[in-house]
Amino acid sequence: MRLTVHLQDVNDNRPQFERVDCVGYLSRKLAIGSEIVTLSAIDFDSGDVVSYRIAGGNEDNCFSLDASTGVLVLACDLGDVRADSRALNVTATDGTHFADAAALTL
């Protein structure tokens, strides 16, 4: 008698940002829609899809983060913004209950 066992991966790993502290560069001359930085996180579980979101620091909605690609773009006119630098908190999730957080300094 032959017995075949098929093992499936269990979602036991959280996504991990490649860098915990990320840096992007801003200029008051950037046009709305300009790409600022691309965030990247990996998940060692097979089949998991990582999604990204801004968790804090974007109260004025000056930035937009593509949930599937991790591309952060400018969504407002920086000429009207008084701050010289910005700090955003971003998360990467695997669609269930695991997440990682990173600080993004602009």
TrEMBL record:
Residues 33-94 form the Cadherin domain. It comes from the Eukaryota. PROSITE patterns: CADHERIN_1 (PS00232), CADHERIN_2 (PS50268). It is found in: Membrane. The keyword Aminoacyl-tRNA synthetase does not apply. One of its GO terms (molecular function) is calcium ion binding. SUPFAM superfamilies: Cadherin-like. GO terms for biological process: homophilic cell adhesion via plasma membrane adhesion molecules. The keyword Heme does not apply. GO terms for cellular component: plasma membrane. Gene3D superfamilies: Cadherins. Keywords: Calcium, Cell adhesion, Glycoprotein, Membrane, Repeat, Transmembrane, Transmembrane helix. InterPro entries: Cadherin-like_dom, Cadherin-like_sf, Cadherin_CS. This is Putative fat-like cadherin-related tumor suppressor-like protein. It comes from Pararge aegeria.
